[in-house]
Amino acid sequence: MTEQARTIRLTVAQAITRYLVNQFIEIDGVQTRICGGGFGIFGHGNVSCLGEALYPLRDVLPLYRGQNEQSMGFAAAAYAKYHLRRRFMFCTASAGPGTANLLTAAALCHANRLPMLMLCGDTFLTRLPDPVLQQLEHFGNPALGLNDAFKSVTRYWDRITHPAQVIQTLPAALATMLDSADCGPAFLALPQEVQGWAYDYPVEFFARRTHRIRRQAPDAGELADAAKAIRSAKRPMIIAGGGVQYAGAVAELTAFADRHAIPVVETIAGRANLLATHPLNIGPIGVTGSDSANAIAEQVDVIVAIGTRLQDFTTGSWTAFARDAVLIGVNVGRHDAMKHLSLPVVGDAKLAITALDAALGDHAAPADWVAGAQALRRDWDGYVDTNTAPGNRPNSYAQAIGVVNALCHPRDRIVTAAGGLPAEVTANWRTLDIGTVDVEFGFSCMGYEIAGGWGARIAQSECEPDRDTIVLVGDGSYLLMNSDIYSSVLTRKKLIILVLDNGGFAVINKLQNNTGQPGFNNLIADCPTIPDPFAIDFEAHARSMGAHAVTVANPAALGDAFRAAKAADKTTVIVMQVDPHDGWTTQGHAWWEVGTAEVSDSDTVRAKHAEIEATRARQRRGV
Fold first, then answer.
1. Which of 251, 293, 468, 522 is deepest in the core (most CB within 10 A)?
2. What is the pLDDT of residues 577-590, one digit of tens each?
3. Largest CA distance in the chain
4. pTM of the predicted protein model
């Protein structure tokens, strides 16, 4: 073979797209392209070269035209989450504000450890036409630009300054996105002229390649220490996080809990690790948890934390657990496994659980401990029954959740984020099938709901086209980002969207009130700069974007509208007002540390400060 035959001349943009097309992953014995396509808004920084490269590949790398770069990133995050981080989407944006709009989405992916590839325009490497449209000039550092801002919110960052870099950069970026411990977003800054520069690339660089997720085996010594601690436990508990699902370890977790009779509680990211009816599922834990899970957490002597980064909403700002409890951190990430002086078991959750199971043999937790935990869960179920039931009381989030929970298919996917809904869904949702709940609370990012629903539906339509993606969103998040209602209609990716209107940012108003302050600048009615408050016609707004839309007065009417939405062939938006003050889930909360005013003219603020500070004595001290 001649030297010429072993190379192919391509532009940088063409090389990037051709490489992505030829990368596959094996999932359940089936080889699937790792990159499911992309979300893109073209501008002068990416249309002429990257757009040219994407056009011939539009059938194998479908490009979804978003309405907003931030929402494109949210959609990509939800897509990756649905596929358990084994597939990803790219996002392409133009130089300047288009790329800047992706910063929040990159932070969300970073916090949630989700893969997303950003292919973003950049200023000219030669600097000959400087300053160019939308360029930020740093007088003392001409190499510094907007794209450098992504270094703090990505796991992999590079600027392509020569075509040959692609040969090193793309495999490194892909390896990062597929690494269980280091998974996160990757960012490639693509100077506008460099995108079009050509190079003689090795043909073998574009050969079809099949990847597999690496599974790291845990250390034998760490396993032995963990097994010894579990055998000594009289009151053990498992905290199951989102990492259990990413590792494909749900079956192993269930078998481990069953064999050793250890109660399991779930984090927000770990919701839907176990069915609601599983006898060892004691409920969600933490600030937005359940009385049952939080009650046993106060008594435990050994905690096995699997696949969780132990966020403050899980730990109650480290007050939820007995202070002398031994913590075992089972995590593929060393950083997470070693938190708060834990006994670390660094390794893949599937392998670690299997190894711990073998090490424990027939050991089981005391029967009275398990029975007590199960009795607490039955009490919590009774509370949820009452809390979600319609009745002679104001409309509430919990009632809406109860309606959807009763009428949806077990494989329907639930998507929500930020505001009050993560707490209400976490506490009140009864899991009908494994891995069906997406509550974005790693970054707690308003605006994720509808955009994430669109991305989740794109992924769902690849695997379960007959099922529905159901979005629960408050009026505040709806107003922040709603344009992907239009996207879902245009692309025929049907969503069912419940807009629960409480007249503003009601959950922060509740926090404001709970720290002794009067309502101020959260509810529309409490904004001094708004002389004439009025309600949004969400139904008319949604209709203007091509969706079916209906406003309902109560949970019974919500049920009728939901049934109609299930039968519809395109996106439906259902609007219901909920009370901003009454109807919140009042039980199941652990303490949460927030900053409070030590000095104030308000008696109620001072009293709340003293009350909150008094709980600090319960905080577990660690690193």
1. 293
2. 999 999 899 999 99
3. 86
4. 0.97
Handedness of CA 488, 491, 493, 496 (dihedral sign): positive
CATH fold of 389-577 reads Rossmann fold (3.40.50)
* DSSP-based three-state secondary structure for 326: strand
- Token pair listed for 77: 């995050």
> Looking up tokens 């090490």, which residue turns up?
359
Give residue-wise pLDDT tens across range 157-179.
Answer: 999 999 999 999 999 999 999 99
Question: Is the domain 220-379 a CATH 3.90.330.10 member?
Answer: no
**Residue range 4-211 in CATH 3.40.50.970:** yes
Q: What DSSP letter does each residue of 528-587 carry, written as one string? A: TT-SS-----HHHHHHHTT-EEEEESSHHHHHHHHHHHHH-SS-EEEEEE--SSS----S
The answer to whether domain 220-379 and domain 389-577 are alike in fold is yes
Structure tokens at 55: 């056009």
What are the domain boundaries of the chain? 4-211, 220-379, 389-577
Question: Which stretches of 22-176 are assigned E, i.e. beta strand?
Answer: 23-27, 30-33, 35-40, 63-65, 88-93, 117-122, 156-159
Per DSSP, the chain holds a count of helices (H) and strands (E) of 23, 23
Q: What is the pLDDT of residues 440-495, one digit of tens each?
A: 999 999 999 999 999 999 999 999 999 999 999 999 999 999 999 999 999 999 99
